[in-house]
Amino acid sequence: MATRKLYDIDAYMTKFEGKVIACEEVGDVSGKDNGSEGNTDVQGCYKVILDQTLFFPEEGGQTPDKGTINGIAVTDVQIKGDEIIHYLEAPLEVGETVTGEIDWKHRFSNMQQHSGEHIFSGTAYKKYGYRNVGFHLSDQIVTMDFDHPFTEEQLAEMEWAVNEAIVANVEVVTGYPSKDVLSQIEYRSKIDFDEGVRIVEIKGYDVCACCAPHVHKTGEIGIFKIQSAQNYKGGMRISFLCGFRALEEYRNKAQIITKLSGILTTNQEQLAENVQKLKNQTQTLKNQLMTAKQTIMESKLESIPAEQKDVLLFETDLDTPVMRNVVNKLVEQHEGICGVFVGTDTGGYNYIIGSKTVDCREVASALKEKLGARGGGSTQMVQGSVQAKAEDIVECVK
Ligand SMILES: [Zn+2]
């Protein structure tokens, strides 16, 4: 039996009554028939079908409404054919009349995002002939996909145009035109239907086939703001926010900027420049530190007698390029195994070992066998890490 879609009749209703047609225990989420994402915290154990509902199911890329039926949380809502299936945490009695209430804040936010998307898509088609080929609306993301990429200027222009349409506060009209009327009007659609098509018209901006609840007037969308745009499958994926979600995001960004401005004691206009300066300074300091360490290591090397065979150095902190330089210098001067180990007895060591007289791979194998070391390389040089004490490493290498 087809479920009567109350959200279709009035998108602003929040409470409704319905008769329980069926209730079936499904055990867990895996009892669901499709792999949809739905609401994320689904533990729903009962599949409930009512004669009518206000709950918009997961459909057309939009996640379902949230809310309760007889005070029981509705964890997911799916549509199969004409039937809307509610997933509930507890059972309802077949035949009883129940009261449902949707989470209005959540629903209205979805309406703001979805109506905003229609204005953008309608305008993009009119202005550039680019088609919307995908839409995703969940609590985490709001994205729309187009079959053609926009330039940065086009995106800025589009964003402005959508906000102008919002300010114009035009009517959004929904309905099911007859077959004849439908054949006369031009509308955007991802699928070709010939009957039962719900048309959402945003006067002067868009006409589109769509099953979702929309705002009555565009002014209710509040604001439309693009968050990011990436090239995607030859077209473009645009992430955006409308209304209160855009306000929340603005608050987040403003907080981050205020915090950063405080840390860097600068105004927001100079933030990027200041961070770049800091990055450059850090790199300069890193380079200077590396040079200083290299100098210290060189004077250390001079104090090792040239005739000494097998030189193993243990250091707490050295960059890999310095390690490599030191090993190269040791190998030039000394016979046997020359190695540099950087780290601590408790935290383990990274190593580079070189030699012109011994096969380094054999040394690496010994370290691996006796101390569980990792790494490898050539006969002249091996590199890796080992979790062991310095004295055990010395013992093993010798
Ligand atoms: Zn739509």
Would you write up a description of this structure?
It is a single chain. This protein has helices spanning 6-9, 104-128, 152-168, 179-184, 243-264, 271-302, 320-333, 360-371, 390-397, and strands spanning 4-5, 15-25, 46-50, 52-53, 67-69, 72-80, 83-88, 97-102, 132-137, 142-146, 172-175, 199-202, 206-209, 224-232, 235-242, 311-315, 338-344, 348-354, 374-377, 381-386. The model is unreliable at 37-41 (pLDDT under 50). α6 (271-302) packs parallel to α7 (320-333). With 398 residues, it is α+β, with helices and mostly antiparallel strands. The chain is 35% helix and 28% strand. The strands form five sheets. The protein has a six-stranded antiparallel beta barrel with strand order 2-3-7-6-5-8. Strands 16-17-18-20-19 form a five-stranded mixed β-sheet, with helices on both faces. The chain is elongated and about 100 Å long. Residues 60, 114, 118, 208, 210, 212 line the site of zinc ion.
